[in-house]
Amino acid sequence: MTLWASAASGAVLETAKQWPVGSILRVCYVDTLSEIPPTLPAIIENAALQWSEHANITFDFGDRPATPCPADEYFEVRISVGHIGFWSFVGTDSVEVEFLGPQEASLNIGAGPEPLDSDYVLSGVLNTFGHVLGLVNEHQSPLGDCDEEFRWEDGPDGLPGVYSLLGGEPYHFMKDRIDQLLRQLPEGSYSTASYDPASVMHPSFPESYYLRGARSPCYTPPNIELSEGDKLAIASFYPREPGAIVVPGRIRVRSVREQLRAAGMLENDTFRGQLVRRYTGDGMAEKEHALREAQAVLSKAIAEAKAEPPGGFEPVIACLEGGLSSCREPAEDMLRSLPREASLILAAIALGEEDPVSGTRYIWAVAEGGSAVGEYLLALFLEFGLGGLPSAPDEAALRYRRAAAQAMPQAMMALATQALQNPAAQESHDEAVEFLESAAGKGLAVAQQRLAIIYDQGLYGLPKDPEKALELARLAALQGDPWASLLTGLLFLDGRTKDGSVEEARSWLERSAAGGHATAQASLGFLDEEGYLSTSNLETPAQPVFESALEWYIQAAEAGHTTAQFKVAEFFAAGKGTSIDPIVSADWMGRAAHGGHALAQLEFGRLNRDGVTVTADQVAAHVWLNLASFWLQGEPAENAARERDAVSQRLSENEWARALREAADMASPLPLTHLASAYAQPAARPKPKGSGTVIGANHILTNHHVIDDCQNPIGWVDGTSMTLEVGPTDPTNDLAALIAESNLSSSLPLRHFLDDPLDEGQEVFLSGYPFADLESEDSGSRLASFVSGHIEKEAGVRTNTDHFQHSATTNEGNSGGPVVDSSGNLVGIAVSKLAGESVEGVFFAIKPSVISEFLRTHDILPELQQRLSGRLPIEDLTSLAKRAAALISCQAPGAPEPALMAHAGR
Length: 906
Hints:
It is built from 31 helices and 20 strands. It is an alpha+beta fold. The chain has a six-stranded antiparallel barrel. Strands 14-15-16-19-18-17 form a six-stranded antiparallel β-barrel. A five-stranded mixed sheet has the order 4-3-5-7-6, covered by helices on one side. Helix 17 packs antiparallel against helix 18 (466-477), helix 22 (546-558) packs across helix 23 and helix 26 packs across helix 28 (653-667). The longest helix has 21 residues, at 283-303. The chain is globular, with a radius of gyration of 31 Å.
């Protein structure tokens, strides 16, 4: 992270996230108008204008009091008012598509119970918009020495410290999170400047946070106006003086690349995934790739051999090209005088004859002679278990290091890749970057390409540096790397480099396309369709050329690019660039649908339903409309769901069940959290059933899908049966509260962190009633299950930040059950799993922050006991979790559901 401070003030800017001077930042709201307090938009706009009055930045609030965020375009500032508190992504992070979608908030303004005109709210809004412009909080300045002022630990006088205050109710922050929010930045991380306690970037913490209370120099009341230091600082960061770098069209220029992403042209996780996957595909594909790599390295080593036999290498190389078997005898003759070179040739012969076991023998001989090439090739064979060798990653890493010590760039690249595959170790990332820098410096194209991606994305602790990314990408592209050519073209389209011409961008995209890169081909089709021609600029598109666009789309479509397949189908359906041909259109639409393109699935479902250009098939129509309803968002998803439900009326129960199974099978292993479970055959709804979690004196929390349309719910808690009443529900977050007729005594403490610092790798435990036959007479005598697992990811399906992924086995009936930590605190509610025969061990739970918000919203917050700490003995933890797990039965008519359902509890 690069931080810079104005010499005139204490304001601190994260330069890697600074907007270009002169930018226009468009503001929209993710909430509906009815959810936004009427006076709040004016307060927000006034606060933003306080900053822009002194900075060469314009905030565009549109022509409405609260402009809604569009579904297909990234506004730079996307406001939510739906949660209590104030937070914001810093600077340009708000438009990074890896973090957020176009309708996901980049900042939150939640006043809670405070009056909107209070100092608390005014200060919070000003501070939040300072973060929008790239500023960080002032109390973390090393010149303020606030580390010495905070009361970190509980004192001998009994006063609680910051760790206790923020670690308890209602925040429950982890210690490292508190340090991240409060600790000073290290000396030298930015230039010398003054400390400004009057800055609006200085939060007003309670007196109790400080050892000297209100007498502390770091204690400040809410600052509701920009200080003189704020004004000077923001004016220096975004200057209006002559000579300042002003990019008035930058947002529109950058939108070309964003349009490509939004249109689906940059599909298949184009960049980030390439950094952590050395090869793609299954294990066999990896081995085949490794063998090809070995052959390439051997060929190069032979061509570059320094020692030569009397007749030179030319005859040997010629016979290698003409026929491998004829080269074996002369190579063996060479062993007497040139053992290393002869072994290289013999290894190449063996691999060419698909005899890697013999190749291993010769490669081993070269490695034992200390050759970097031999060490690298032997490491490659050991890593992937080739040539009869067992897979030995540690031994492979050792030999890679020996080869790297001899400056072999391929070995450096291999070590860098291994280091990047460790997501938790910053030290390994630093080492990886060093290896990549060394390999790139020696001209290895793949290292230059991946280092360019790191600088483009700002990954692994390096700042974003478009110019450096462009330099590296271009070097790799000149060696024929199609990925690098694509990145070079996109950097020119991005508007962050010195040159933003379409002509230059197209030349590099065409290089990539000529190398067979489908993403480049699809991107060129999009540029032609939208009118971004070589004679136009990025801000003023010319007339589209549909014929050229279709040619590019067809190339990408034939290579399997699903968005291009959808575009080809659209072109033939509408006669764009060609004559209308419904049959060809339907064929391409089907290919795109099978490839997972959601809009194609919607259209293909309609074709199957109506029997237009394909044979009418209502089951197939239901399958495709069902898939589309899950993957799409907004109005298209609603249309797909409505049309799917209409088709379901035409199906028999067996046909409907088959449609659900086929949808799950076709989508596997993709997540199907809502697929085919948010609705049911109107004439035969499956019977809801599942688990619940005791929460408070007389409430049981479960999933909404467990009790949806539930009649006369019944629950069993710790073997005791009771009648339940359905209380408040939240279908959006899949939560519902059931009210018990008598008090319950087995509630769990709720660990509800405002910032959700659930750690990946943290051990968790799940309790509930999987596969419970709720209609049996002995339901109440059943015992809850108890299984362990770990938190795998801090987000759910499609980066759903309201869920986390875990590995505690979740089956039908577990939905609504408690997920607890090793201390016995409730950390989640089981909600779903991946569906399909090939999917195992991928389960999801609702985060504690969402649970807490639901309870608070409906005024049913439980009387929580003190959050538990320390690790409980496993027998105590098991008993605690099982007693807090409820078995839920709902009386509802209907037939049993099909075996393949997406929700764990349906």
